[in-house]
Amino acid sequence: LSDYDADGALHEANARARWALVERHSGAPPASVLDVGCAVGTFLVEAQRRGAQVAGVDVSPWARAQAEQRHGIGVAASVEEVAARESGEFD
Fold first, then answer.
1. Mean pLDDT, residues 62-77
2. In the chain, how many H helices and how many E strands?
């Protein structure tokens, strides 16, 4: 936990850089994003800031709990769980 939190600024910078990469290659900002392996949801927070609807998946119970506690984002334990509760597709 402390090691992960100590790198918080780096995780946020990486999320901004990944979002910029997605925008550069997609031609338009995605309206809906699925982040598989989302950890505590840092990229999902950046995507929400940019107006996207988000969903995340992570195998770590700790990471899922942190995404909920820190950001109010419910993260699924599997892609199947996301498919069961989300309708439509992701950009």
1. 94
2. 5, 3
